[in-house]
Amino acid sequence: MSDQLSNAQPQFLTVGEGEAAREIAMLVRPARAGNGAPALVWLSGYRSDMSGTKAVELDGLAAELGAACIRLDYSGHGLSGGSFGDGTISRWLEEALAVIRHVAPDRIILVGSSMGGWIALRLAQELARQGGPKLEGPKLEGMVLIAPAPDFTSELIEPNLKAKERKSLAERGYFEERSQYSPEPNIYTRALIEDGRENRVLDGIIETGCPVHILQGMKDADVPHAHALKLVEHLPADDVVLTFIRDGDHRLSRPGDIALLVSAVKGIIRSSTNRQMPA
Question: What per-residue confidence (pLDDT) applies to 75?
Answer without folding.
Answer: 98
